[in-house]
Each structure stands twice: as C-alpha cells, then as structure tokens.
Amino acid sequence: MGKFDSAEYTEINEEVPSPKANNARKVSVLPLVFLIFYEVSGGPFGVEDTVQAAGPLLALLGFLVFPFIWSLPEALITAEMGTMFPENGGYVVWVSSALGPYWGFQQGWMKWLSGVIDNALYPVLFLDYLKSAIPALGSGLPRIIAVLALTLVLTYMNYRGLTIVGGFAVSLGILSILPFVVMGLISIPKLRPSRWLVVDVENVDWNLYLNTLFWNLNYWDSISTLAGEVRNPKKTLPKALYYAVILVVLSYFFPLLIGTGAVPLQRDLWTDGYFSDIGKILGGVWLRVWIQGAAAASNMGMFVAEMSSDSFQLLGMAERGMLPEFFAKRSPYGTPLFGILFSASGVVLLSWLSFQEIVAAENFLYCFGMILEFIAFVLLRITCPHAPRPFKIPGGTIGAILLCIPPTILICVVLALSSFKVMVVSLVAIAIGLVMQPCLKLIEKKRWLKFSVSSDLPDITTDGPLLH
Question: What are phi and psi of 17, to 5 degrees?
Fold first, then answer.
C-alpha cells in the first residue's frame, strides 16, 4: 500500500457509488440545503436570548460577525473534508485518518452525545410553543406522553428514509420562514432604526450571549455523516453548504432586525417564544398563531435532521469497525436501524434537562470535538498535501492554520465561560469515552460481539494517515 498522496480515493469519482451502496434514493441539492438548514438553524426560534443578554446592537452584530468567525470556517472545512471522504461517518473518518482510530472513536462519542443532547431540546421546545394554546402540555403526565409520542412519530420518519426526511425538511423550511417575510412587510411603517443602536456594555451577560450565538450557528459539520447518502457529493455538498450559509444568516438577521426595530425594547421579554408575541403586536392573533405553528414545525425539522446525522454517524462508525457490526444494519428503507433506536433512546432519557443546561453541556462537548476536527484538517494538509480534494480551500497549509485560529480562540472563550456543574458533567462524559473504546476492543478480542470493517472502504492504520 502507498501513502494517501499517491493513491486515488475511488469514491471521489462521481460515477462510482459510495461505500455500502443501498437501494435508497440519494439526496440532491435542495433537500440537502434544508437538511443543513435544520442541522444548524431551523429559523430564528431560539435567538431571542441574545437580545436579552446583550441588547439589540450586539445581537445584530453577533449574527453578522459570528458567521465569519465560526460558521464560514466550519462550513469550508466540512466542504473540503466531506468531499475528500464522501462516506457515512464524516468527521469520525477525518479524525481517524489523521490521528488514528482511538481518537476517531473519541470524536464520534463526543459528537454523537452532543447531537443527542441537542436533539433532546426539540420535543421540549415544540411543546413550549404549544402550551399557550394547550395549557395541559405545560407539565405533568400529558407533557410526558406528548414528548414520547412526538419522539416516536419523528423517529419513524427517520426510519422511512432520507428522501422522506429531505422532502419534509424543505416543506417545513418554507413554512418556518414565510411568516417572517409577512411580518417584515407589515413592520415597515413601524421600524425605528435608532432602536437597533441600543447597547449597554456594562449589563451584558456574556455567557448567555456567546452560548446562544454558538448554539445557533454551529453543527455545519453534522451533514458530513450523511455524505454517503448524497448524490454526487463532490459537487452537491459544497454547493449545498454555500446556499445553506446564506439561508441561515438571513433567517436569523432579518427577524431580529424586524423585532428590535418595530417594537419598543423590553430586554427581559426577549426569551424563547417572544417572536410570536411580536407577531401579535404587529399583525394580530393570526400572525402569532402562524409563528407559533412555524416554530413548532421548525423544532420537528431540527429533530429529524439531527437524528439523521446522529444515526448515520453510528452506521459509519460500525462500517469502520469502531462499533459492533449490528450498528451497520440498515432497514428496508436504507436507514440505520439500530443507530436510530439508540439515538431516539438518548433523546428520551435527556429530555428532562432544562434548556440552559442542555445548551451549555452540548456546547462544551461540541467544542472538544471541533478541536479534534481542526487538528485533523491541518494535519492532513501537512501529511497529505497532494491527496485528491474535489473542493479545496485556497491558501495552502498556512491558510488552513490561519482559518482555524479565530474559531479556536472562540472555543477557548466558550469553554472558559462554562459553569462548574456543566464542566464536571461534560468532563465525566469525555472520560467515559476514553474508557469505552478499550472496553469495546476487549469485547471484540473476546468475540462477545462481532466487529467488521467494510471492504468497500479505504484502510485506516494506526501508524499514519489514511492509506490505500
């Protein structure tokens, strides 16, 4: 076998099917754009806390500046690495090829856990938007039953296939964005530009502000775990990421521009669900109900997109021999059967946590995973400079390093602002992953469960980067 530099990664050829090709239809550009949209955003629901934490000016600037610091670098790295390794498993494969299977497993554990924690938010947020209309959903047994029923229905959609999920995401995306277009047109006579300039630096909750920005503008790399299900990924994935970045930034910035400019500022009111109150102020009850419906739909879209990413990641790890072989089993619809079941179980177990605890814990784990991704990205540029990259970020190795510096600084700030409780819980979760991998290797050695590496995939060795 030769070094990766001198070999062809056959999947990069668009005529060659991805590993473990199945009979399920592949995802095209438009559904992929909206899957990314829901992996990252889902609309402006959840950005309200930035206004409460920092006021209108810093909230607006945050959603203009933050994408250049974080979203754009992450999306560019995802486009390059996702087309370099167009297979399910995504960032797990990137880290494994650069740092070896042990750290690839740690990446998979941290990112899967952060994804499941993230997904536990959406049934809860869905019911929070509906409880004003149906008070019984606010607490108690009805709420528990509703969370379980909603999780079951959306899990079944994932089971039925990515083309179903992709079409569902497109429909929900339009539904999520449309009421804010209408609200923007209604608000024009009431806009007061001076309201956008309000700032009080001495009363900024930087922890809430940065965590909310970070949560609303990350997870661009999640789509990489579906690369094996994408039609012609070397062209489709970069194009979909480009359009999704534009869509996400606009879906945050303009609703904030409308809400802060058309309504007198009361910072304490800016919390989850406040956009529906603004809709009522500007357009009446009908607009409030429409926004509430869009918010509920958005949470469903984010749930199905996140679960798709999480479950296909487990499938990709099983195809790499990192997890027992049964995780690679597909349903008749081509979806990862056990990956979906495990991800759904994690969502149910974590859905009792509060919104703030979920966001903080998820961000902490996600930050560690991103550090490994940045290291893998730069290391592969150094060790495999001539490897086939259908999409390549210009600037060479120095450019790659410079691209990673701003988001790395941001990661350090987010980690430093974490509470002691969140830090302890997250570090315990990381420690579990450090021990779990050797335990799985022991189980494999004892042959208590079957592990296997797909013959369709290029080799990953422990003594260097990806070899062929």
Answer: -70, 155
Whole-angstrom distance, CA of residue 343 vs CA of residue 341: 6
> How far is Cα 230 from Cα 32, in angstroms, rounded to an integer?
8
Q: 453 vs 3, 390, 460, CA distance in Å? A: 20, 25, 10
* pLDDT tens sequence across 160-181: 877 677 777 888 888 889 999 9
Residue-wise DSSP of 112-148: HHHHHHHHTHHHHHHHHHHTTT-GGGGSHHHHHHHHH
DSSP result, 51-100: HHHHHHHHHHHHHHHHIIIIIHHHHHHHHHHHHHS-STTTHHHHHHHHH-
pLDDT in tens, 396-413: 999 999 999 999 999 998
Distance CA 451, CA 443 (A): 9
Residues paired with 330 in a beta bridge? 336
- Give the span between the Cα atoms of 117 and 110, in whole angstroms: 11
246 pLDDT above the threshold of 80: yes
Query: pTM of the entire structure?
Result: 0.86
Residue range 148-162: average pLDDT?
84
The answer to whether 46 and 124 have CB atoms below 8 angstroms apart is: no
